[in-house]
Predict the structure.
Amino acid sequence: MIQQVRSLLFLKPGQMMVSSVPTLVTTVLGSCVAVTLFCPRNQFGAICHAQLPSCDNPVDCSHEHPARGKYVECAIRMMLERLNAHGVKRHELQAKVFGGSDMFEGNLKRRGVGSQNAEMALKVLEREAVRVVCQDLGGERGRKIIFHTDTGEVLLKRLGKSGDS
């Protein structure tokens, strides 16, 4: 059996990618959220590593603005636009959502940025009629994920709490 060689990519905060080329995409999440989108029909995969729920300025979400991938709301919309340009329909997509940890103790009366990121990701996917097939959100631990763009598979490792031995 011949296996197809995959390229490797480490996704940094604020980055996203859409690919039909088999790629293993790795990223490490704390309060950030990663959303993967996969179309089984044509084996297109997309992933973002977003840092904040939404931008304050709609101009920041324009196609030309380099910071668009930094925001959950903008990054998901941009991935959907790129997939649509390749003929992928929203009803074909399988979404998986990871991260959104509230890793630092703070004011218990305010929701942390991790919770806000997770909530925004689920809200945008619902609004855009994209089915979420898997989620691993919240908590106090970071996560490392590996996304296979050509199969939609995501491998997850929960990281130790800071201070753990």
Remarks:
- The longest strand covers residues 23-29.
- The helical segments are 72-85, 113-127.
- The radius of gyration is 16 Å.
- The domain at 7-158 is CATH 3.30.1330.200 (60s Ribosomal Protein L30; Chain: A;).
